[in-house]
Amino acid sequence: MTASGNPTARRPQRDEVVDVLIIGAGPSGSVAAKHLSAAGFSVITLEQGHMPDRDLYPGRRPEWELVSQKRWHPNPNVRDLPRDYPVETSESDINPLMFAGVGGSATLYAGHWTPFTPSDFRVKTLDGIADDWPFTYEELFPFLDQIEHEVGVSGMPGNPAYPPRGNFPTPALPIGKVGRKAASGLDKLGWHWWPGTNAIPSIPYNGLNACVLRGTCMTGCPEGAKSTTDITFWPHAIKNGARLVTGARVRHIEVDDRGLATGAVYIDEHGRERRQKARVVIICANGIGTPRLLLLSASARFPDGLANSSGLVGKRLMMHPFSAVLGVYDEDLESWRGPFGQTIDCYQFYETDEKRGFVRGAKWGAMPTGGPLGAMSFVGTKIFSDREATIEDAWGASLHQVVGRRFGHSIVWGIIGEDLPEETNRVMLDPVVTDSDGIPAPKLQYRNSENTRRLLKFHVDRCVEAVKAAGAIEIVVVHEVRDTGWHLLGTCKMGDDPKTSVVNRWGQSHDVPNLYIFDGSTFPTSAGLNPTATIMSVALRQTKHLAAERRNQEAA
Amino acid sequence: MSTPTPSRLTAELRATFKELADVLVPAHGKMPAASAVGAHEALLDDVLKHRPDIRDDLLRALTAAQGREPRAAANDLLRKDAAAFNALGLAVSGAYYMSPRVRELLGYPGQESVAYDPYATPNYLTDGLLERVVARGPIYRATPR
User: Fold this and answer.
1) Optimal mutation site among A136, A209, A382, A395, interface B, most CBs of chain B within 10 A
2) What is the DSSP letter of A56?
3) DSSP letters of A465-494?
4) Which of A36, A374, A395, A547 is a plausible cystine mate for A370, CB 3.0–4.6 Å?
5) ipTM entry
6) CATH code 3.50.50.60 for A18-52+68-552
7) Most B CBs within 10 Å: which of A391, A393, A398, as the mutation test of the B interface?
8) Which residue of A lies nearest to B143 if distances are taken between CA atoms?
């Protein structure tokens, strides 16, 4: 394989054979596009969604809470937009959440920046479960450090939940009255807490504006202050000469007689079928979209799906089961104010203690609760209300009392539990449901495990203790919230053995040497943390390796 | 045979909405009833502009409740047609809490922009709150060698 080595090379034309085709312009695909184009590769990225227009984000407008329950809901089945593909979830305990567009699902994320800890890469060695990663925290850290400076992370150094490290590129965001109140309960119990680390800069940074604490992060940031790659990566990639094609939905990846990838067939936004040829193909379509595409790419040579000699494509889906604890306090906490990125977090019970009756742990993040409708809802879904309630219970004077008590006075703790990989939790192709281009939709089979149930029960009980210690006058617990599958991981496992993994330690397919996967689907385990920091760091690691090994790269 | 759902919000259906809205959100303490802030007027139009997806369910709810005692009609909807009731509830609460008067009474300025000094030393660094966390030492497990 050759590469021009010239960052100012002519931008490739559509349908021209390129060095690298990237499928998906979310966090991992954007990292690859920026850094490969900087290294002189000709790069085309196909993205099924469009470039976001932040004037459309509703956070500044009075209807914000109303539209967050539909047009800006994180569940694509609720939004039901033409660019979203449907996901069949009748056999899943959790609904997957995602967004199609440049910047990917991070468009609707909260920006919690929680890199995986050293033990997360060594769960087999330390806890005797699942698999170790093919690299360590220490090996990944230089890439994390670089990514944090490209993303514009805000945070406070010195967190004892991590090994010592340097400063973050921007100062920590204010924790506000919400964070202060949440920390007070943990302080009384002598438990860990730390000011939130977020992909939201507190000062203008790399094209981002400074956060203004509007608190509407999860419906897109109208300030342009939440770090998404449409702002922080794509301007650089395009300047480097990368081409971005939006509204392009890939139908399948093609291979030649030698079993090497030759490119992809996609449907453009006018419904025309097109073909993009490339010497290397990188899939970055998330833990559901990536296995879906590999299964759609089955052929006579690869009858079980592309890159699937291990039989693991689509298996080991991890989505981070999630429980929520709402604490209500007498004091005015101004709890509509942001950031909706975590104000503080708690890792007190993150590491395994087998006496608890389960392995691994969870992170808790403290967040505000939004406007008056937030008294009953979390991220667009009405969860803090009794579905069996009568009109007298839920409306009339009761509604006024609940809103009067909770609005401005509440904190919601989100508890993200580590999800262990199980082959029965999987992504398949649905035989009936299709997207708007007629391409088969993914179907999920996913059940929360006994370890998950015990883990979340333990953590909820401890969280309730912390909420009480902070002086709560009302506590509402919601176990195993259904609309919380933000983190789509594990379905194309990374490892050294082709029999037990889909890609190697560099994200390269064992079966198709010029096919790579750089997204979270390659994660052998999930940790109990928001994964975007680790997804982007791993993508940078794999990208740099691919660039360094360009002369040894086999290509069609 | 059931009554067909109308395609538009007539004056009669809007009047029915007003009655139902006051059952769901009556006056209470300092808070006004839904109709007192015009939840059935321009605010309802705003709700339907932003949430056209609930229009059919809402019109079905209003048609079923038309001419009936509103509390009994609302209870019937809750038991027999959850989608219609949910649309009604969302329209009423959405309209009510978008009202500037209601927001003022609640002390809710909306999702506002807040000025702050990113370089100011946070209180938790000066009052010992975070120092106590640091003093307890590392809680991570190191990579095994």
Assistant:
1) A395
2) G
3) HHHHHTT-SEEEEE-S-SS-B---B-TT-B
4) A374
5) 0.95
6) yes
7) A391
8) A118
